[in-house]
Amino acid sequence: MPLWKFECKEDWYHGMWRRWYKNQCVAVGYPPYCGYHLEGDGPNSGWSYTRNRLMEMEIDDDIVVALPYNRVGRIGKITRMNFGDNDWDPLVPPGPGYGGEMGRRVQVRWDLTVGPDNPDLVVQLPEECHFVGNERLRAIAPIHAIAQAELAGVMNNPKNWVSLLGKFVYEKALSDYIAHYSHHLEDGLLPHPNVAIREHRFADGKRADVVLIDPLNNPVIVECKQHAPSVQDIEQLRGYMAQFQEETEQVPRGILVHGGAQNLSDDVENNANLDPVVKVVSYTLRVDFKT
Fold it and tell me: 27 Cβ partners below 8 Å, 6+ apart?
């Protein structure tokens, strides 16, 4: 039985994944009011491919929701297919002269035993586990590169769970937060008293994001990354550590803070443990509103 990928365009339609989850459905666009009809090719070849895949699906086929940045939401099983021209039911509401979007729905039953219970959490796929070719490029596609059992195993590992939108948009916002609330990063950390705390500039013009000091008076260089860290990120931080030691004759520690999953690739984990060791820390962003 095939596993179908449905792409959730969360970066185009913010909140779409929550709508899919709540309505127990997945969906594609290609509205009939714009000429995309099941009986014809429509204005572009993308619709022909999507239409053919929809017609191949059957009740009880499995689907997985794909999200931007190599993430997935949940696995489900098809219960009803109402994607015909007369079934158009847009999840993006219609407006004046506009018939809505994402209205060709496929009803599903979510498998709540796979992945995080909270729909605000999604799964960051490791580097070695990703969609390829049409699996990645198309709005819907059959999945062959990843076995469903392997995918379920990745989704059930809490170290791969990340917040859907819980990130600082800019690295500067994250480094500003760390500079002001350094004790949240590690108990006892304080802004460095003798150097520029933010954007510390080296002789070659490169800049370290944040410079702190720990309770033992060891300097701490912090590098901030929005997404999952790479070996190059760690080597970049080590370069800053070496430059700081050369300029001040103090041996610093290094902390790399990132917005990816806790689960690191083997290459990154192994490299981080080389001398000098770099501590790798993931963060989540939470916002509370009060009236």
Answer: 6, 20, 91, 102, 103, 104, 105, 106
Two tokens at 2? 């095939």
- Tell me how far apart the alpha carbons of residues 67 and 164 are, in angstroms, rounded to a whole number: 9
Question: By C-alpha distance, which of 174, 177, 65 is closest to 121?
Answer: 65
Summarised one tens digit per residue, pLDDT across range 149-178 is 999 999 999 989 988 876 666 678 888 889
Preceding omega of 252 cis (within 30 degrees of 0): no
What's the number of CA atoms in the CB half-sphere (13 Å) around residue 23?
19
- Region 132-143: mean pLDDT is 91
pLDDT in tens, 88-109: 999 998 888 888 999 999 999 9
Taking CA atoms, 189 is separated from 142, 207, 208, 244, 262, in Å, by 49, 20, 17, 18, 22
CA 26 centroid distance within chain: 19
Decide if 161 contacts 26 (C-beta within 8 A).
no
∠ CA 74-76-82 to the nearest 5 degrees?
Answer: 120
